[in-house]
Every structure is written in structure tokens, then in C-alpha cells.
């Protein structure tokens, strides 16, 4: 016996209109259209990956670091292999994706935040620029000429 559970979704009115339009075209009710779409999407989803050994995982991270051409490309490639970079102060950490468990500091495998920022010509996404503290007026070094 198949069990069903009632689910409520909050959707934008344009999305609801598209579902209703598809339902009319297919001569189905909107709930059936949504079930069919979900079923098709879930059947196309890739099979879950088998966990890799830590050494193979770090090798994959190194290869991705060498191949990436920007921060977004790097994160996309890392996530494909089950990893993600997280900023912690002045350092980047490799975490498992999607569990977000810490794996290793990036500088321990030969890369640094500064080095990647220079290579990609951009700061790490989401990193706030540092502000240089200036001394209060009249308390600087030396005298004005």
C-alpha cells in the first residue's frame, strides 16, 4: 500500500500559473503535474558518490586547484568532488561538501589565500576588505614641511 503525505509549498504566483497551464495542457490536476516533474527530476539525479579515501580526496583537491580559472570555477569543481573552501580569518580551509566538516587547511597542501587571490585577480568571494587604521590627525610621524 502506497502512503502519501500532504506537503505545502510556498511558490511565486508566476510559477503556480505555469503549473496550472501545464496541468490544463496535459489534462491533469496540478498536484499530478508537480509529482511527475519531481519524479522525472529525481530519476535523472546522479547516483550518490561512494566516499573516497583521504589521500585520493586530497589528490582531487590539488588537481582542481591546478585546473581552476577563478574562484567560482574552483568552488564548482571542488563541490563536484565533494569539497568546498571556507574562509577562516586569513586562511582557507577545505571542508567536505555538503556536510561542511573540516578536512585540512589549504596552506598545508601548498596553496594560500594570498596566492590564489593573486592568481585569480580577485579576493575570495565574501571576504571583507581590510581597513588600514590611520593615526588620528596631528599624531602622525614627523612634521609637515
State the share of residues found in helices, binned by percent: 40-55%
Our estimate of the beta-strand percent is: 5-15%
Q: Tell me the number of strands.
A: 3
* Termini gap: 91 Å
Secondary structure tally, helices: 5
Low-pLDDT windows of residues: none
Q: What is the residue-mean pLDDT, rounded to a whole number?
A: 82
* Apparent shape: elongated
Major β-sheet annotation: 3 strands, antiparallel
Class based on secondary structure composition and strand pairing? alpha+beta
The Cα radius of gyration reads: 25 Å
In spatial order, strands of the major sheet run 1-2-3
- Please trace the helix and strand order, writing H or E for each element: HHHHEEEH
Describe it for me?
With 145 residues, this protein is an alpha+beta fold. The chain has 5 helices and 3 strands. Among the domains are: 13-44; 54-120, no CATH class. 42% of the residues lie in helices and 11% in strands. The protein has a 3-stranded antiparallel beta sheet with strand order 1-2-3. A hairpin with a 5-residue loop joins strand 2 and strand 3 (102-105). Helix 1 packs across helix 2 (30-44). The model has no long low-confidence stretch (mean pLDDT 82).
List keywords for this structure.
5 helices; 145 residues; elongated; alpha+beta
Outline of the structure:
The chain is of the alpha+beta class. The protein has helices spanning 13-26, 30-44, 54-67, 71-80, 113-120, and strands at 83-88, 91-96, 102-105. Among the domains are: 13-44; 54-120, no CATH class.
